[in-house]
Write a structure and sequence with these properties.
This protein is of the alpha/beta class. Helices cover 34% and strands 16% of the residues. The chain contains eight helices and six strands; from the N terminus they run βαβαβαβαβαβααα. Strand 3 (61-67), helix 3 and strand 4 form a beta-alpha-beta unit. The longest helix has 16 residues, at 15-30.
């Protein structure tokens, strides 16, 4: 009996998510799974996507996986996907993704423990699932930190004061909460504003 996985990929702002998807795909292949990857990047219609999915033998699927709740709604459109566990890896904060997964059967995997806490406060079950790489991806030629040269700057620079000024102009009540020493996450702000 073959072991198959359906993996949905899509368009993401940062290439790191594509790296996660490729790493997950390789990891499944290394342990003997056949991975069907369906890209949602260039799908012009649901009909086109459903047609592509109809070519996959779903009776052999062990699980379906997506990132940021992509394609979760397909479980309602394709009855053959209904009995198959559907996992979605939430890279972004769940508040941005709620409309995609709320009320679905998707099993939520979060990259941040605070995201798990946020969802549990909403009564939604989620599990912490940190980023990982295959051991085959790690360099055999490890360089000690003291010998590294150059600077790694993994994010774009944004001027905090400019953003704060904009928030203060539009929503001074939120801006005041952002400067509170007890605020450590977006969940803290939402609680202070009475949303949680």
């Amino acid at each position: 009996m073959s072991k198959n996985v359906l993996l949905f990929s899509g368009s993401f702002q940062y290439g790191v998510v594509d790296d996660f998807i490729n790493g997950i795909k390789r990891a499944f292949e290394l342990i003997g799974y056949r991975v069907y990857e369906v890209s949602l990047k260039d799908k012009s219609s649901d009909d086109e996507l459903l047609s592509q999915l109809s070519l996959i033998d779903t009776t052999q699927l062990k699980l379906v996986l997506s990132v940021n709740a992509l394609a979760v709604e397909l479980t309602n459109k394709l009855p053959q996907l209904a009995p198959i566990p559907f996992y979605t890896y939430l890279v972004d904060h769940p508040i941005h993704l709620l409309p995609r997964f709320y009320g679905t059967k998707a099993k939520l995997l979060c990259v941040d423990k605070e995201h798990v806490t946020f969802l549990s406060q909403l009564g939604i079950q989620a599990q912490f699932w940190p980023h990982a790489v295959c051991d085959t991806e790690l360099s055999a030629e490890y360089v000690p930190f003291s010998q590294k040269k150059g600077i790694l700057f993994p994010a774009s620079f944004t001027d905090e004061s400019a953003h704060f000024a904009e928030i203060n102009k539009v929503a001074p009540n939120i801006a005041a909460k952002l400067t509170d020493a007890n605020v450590r996450s977006i969940s803290d702000v939402l609680r202070m504003l009475g949303f949680m």
